[in-house]
Design a protein that fits this description.
By secondary structure, the chain is an alpha/beta fold. It has a single domain, classed as TIM Barrel (Alpha-Beta Barrel), CATH 3.20.20. Helix content is 43%, strand content 14%. Strands 1-2-3-4-5-6-7-8 form an 8-stranded parallel barrel, surrounded by 5 helices. Strand 2, helix 2 and strand 3 form a beta-alpha-beta unit. The two termini are 19 Å apart. 41% of the residues are buried. It binds 1,3-dihydroxyacetonephosphate. 1,3-dihydroxyacetonephosphate binds next to strand 8.
Length: 249
């Protein structure tokens, strides 16, 4: 049985002070350990301060990206080891904004996933199709290509240490969420694809999150789908009341 995960991706939002204020508020709101795993992904600058604020709570910390090299002349980049030192347990990799705005390829994402695993960080591996790909009936082909490329040379042991997030690009920040049925269809495809490659057991234990305009209003119905094991929330995770509502729904 997979423990459902509610993860908040703050993207490029919140100052350090705002992030710490949110973390303290969340810690106070979650007096008893939640039934769901809760993860927050602040911007790099706030990671360490937020890690300190969450100390003693069950909330886990994720970064939003990393560089695949352990160290070196990569101006502006951050390694997996640095993230771990800052208090991260997770890292989002391959987000569609990284793919479309920053040119990340499946091959690059594959190296980033490997670097995360090597540093004992749990990657939240994001995949998802564009609107024109969905409309052209290519959703499954795109998802398969992203899975194949991102997970190239991975063993079932590796798969056991990562989380997949299906985020249809047309649903991100648009208020246009996939219907629970549309999301479940793709999640089932991911479940079957991973079962064929890595075995039924590994696939059954793989957490597959849905992301794209998730709100307190639509989260319950999405989480009722058999292959949806949690949510990766953007905009609605920035407000503490709405985030706490989604954790408890
Ligand atoms: P929204 O929830 O704002 O649509 O963003 C989803 C997302 O990109 C989470 O990673």
């Amino acid at each position: 049985m997979i423990r459902p995960i509610i993860a908040g991706n703050w993207k490029m939002n919140k100052t350090i002070a705002e992030a710490v204020g949110f973390a303290e508020g969340l810690k106070a709101a979650l007096k008893t350990p939640p039934a769901r795993e809760v993860i927050v992904a602040p911007p790099f600058t706030a990671l360490q301060a937020v890690a300190q604020a969450f100390r003693g709570s069950a909330v886990r910390l994720a970064a939003q990206n990393l560089h695949e090299a352990p160290k070196g002349a990569f101006t502006g980049e951050i390694s997996a080891g640095m993230l771990q030192e800052a208090g991260c347990t997770h890292v989002i990799i391959g987000h569609s904004e990284r793919r479309t705005l920053f040119g990340e390829t499946d091959d690059r994402i594959n190296r980033k996933l490997r670097a995360a695993l090597d540093a004992s960080l749990t990657p939240i591996f994001c995949i998802g199709e564009l609107l024109q790909e969905r409309e052209a009936g290519e959703t499954e082909a795109v998802i398969e290509r992203q899975l194949k490329g991102g997970l190239n040379n991975f063993t079932s042991g590796d798969i056991g240490h990562l989380v997949v997030a299906y985020e249809p690009v047309w649903a991100i920040g648009t208020g246009k969420t996939a219907s629970p049925g549309q999301a479940q269809e793709v999640h089932r495809f991911i479940r079957r694809w991973t079962a064929d490659r890595y075995g039924k057991e590994t696939s059954a234990e793989l957490a597959i999150l849905y992301g794209g305009s998730v709100t307190p209003k639509n989260i319950a119905e999405l989480l009722q789908q058999p292959d949806i094991n949690g949510a990766l929330v953007g905009g609605a995770s920035l407000d503490i009341d709405s985030f706490v509502q989604m954790i408890g729904c």
